[in-house]
Design brief:
Elements: E1 3-7, H1 20-25, E2 30-37, E3 41-42, H2 46-55, E4 59-65, H3 73-84, E5 93-96, H4 105-119, E6 126-130, H5 132-138, E7 146-150, E8 162-172, E9 179-185, H6 223-234, H7 247-260, H8 270-277, H9 303-314, H10 327-339, H11 350-356
Parallel strand pairs: 1-2, 2-4, 4-5, 5-6, 6-7, 7-8
Antiparallel strand pairs: 1-9, 2-3, 8-9
Amino acid sequence: MGNMIDIASWQHSTNEPIDWAQVKKAGYVGVLIKATQSTNYTNPWFREDAEGALSVGLLVGAYHYAQPGGPPVEDQATYFHGVASQIDCALGYWLDLEETDGLAWANVGQWAVNWVDALNTPATPAGVYTNGNYWANLGYLLTGKRIWFANPSANPVPSDINLVATQTGKTSVPGIVGLVDVDVWVNPRGVNLPKPGTPATGPTPAPAVWEGNPTVQAGSTGLDVLWVQQRANTWGYRIVEDSDYGPATEQAVKEMQTRGQVTVDGVVGPVTYKLLAGSPVGQAAPVDPSENYPELQQGATGADVVVLQQRLTAHGIPTASDGVFGPVTEANVRSFQQAAALQVDGIVGPATWKALLA
C-alpha cells in the first residue's frame, strides 16, 4: 500500500503549517495524526493537518494518547470521538498505548480493549499502537484487535498478532520541520480500505457482513447510534449527533431506507448498515437540529448541557462534558460566540445552537 507517516503537534515546533503537497510528492500515501490525550487536550493542529492532508489526496487516521490511570476509558473515548469524528478517517482510529500510569498490566490491557470496543465501527475500525514489551505483557488481551506495531526490527512481530501497520523509524520528510515517524501499512484490509486501483475518496466501503455491530433502533443509545447519525448527516440530513436514537433519527433512517430501496422499518441492521456506509442515494429532506434544544445558561444541568460541552470541544474549545453549565462552560460559550460573530452573552439560544451544531 505504501509508506505513511504519523505526526503530532511536535511537527509544528516552529509554528509553521505542513506543506502537504510536498509530503505527497515525496511518495507518502497517508498520515496518522494525534488528535487528543486524556479528556483535556486536543492537538491544536489536528484539524488543519487532517484537512490539509485530505485536500491533496492523502488518507488520514487519528490517534489518542492513552492515559489508563486518568479519566474513565469511556470518557476518554468519547472525548477523542468528538474531535476525530469531524474528519474522514479512512485509516481508522488508534489508541497510542505507551504508558501504564502505574496500573497492573492486565488492567492496562483491559483498558485498551474497552477503548477499542467503544470506538470500533464497520466504517471506522479502531486498533492499538503498541510495542514488543507491551505486547509481551498484555498482548493476550489484544488477540484479534487491529495492531499498529512499533520498531519491528528490534522487536520481531509476534506470529499471533493481527498486524495492520508497523512504525519503522524516523526520517526527514519534505514539507515538514524536523524528523517524522514513518509507517508501513501491511494490511489494507485491516481498515476496509479501497482495493488497489480504486479511488480513495468517498465513504469507507462496508463489508458484506457486519459482524459484531448491534442492531440499533428507537430507544438505542451509544456510539453505534452516533455513527448512524453521522452517516445521516453525510446523506444530507441535519440530525443532532447526541448518540440517542430518537424520533428525528428514526425518521431520517426511514427516509434513507426509502431512498435506498430497502425494507423501511427504521431499524439499522446489516442491510441498512451497509446502505448508510455507501454513497448517498437520492435527495434528503433536511431539518434544523437547533429546534430540538432549549435555551441554556449558567446554572443549567443535564444531557443538553453535555451536548453543548461536546460541541464546544468539537469546535476546538476543550470543555469537560460533566453536564453542568458552570463558569468555565459559560466562558467557553462566550469565546465560541465571539469567534462565530454572534452576540456574546454566554446564553445558548437558537443562533448559538445552530452554529454549534453546524
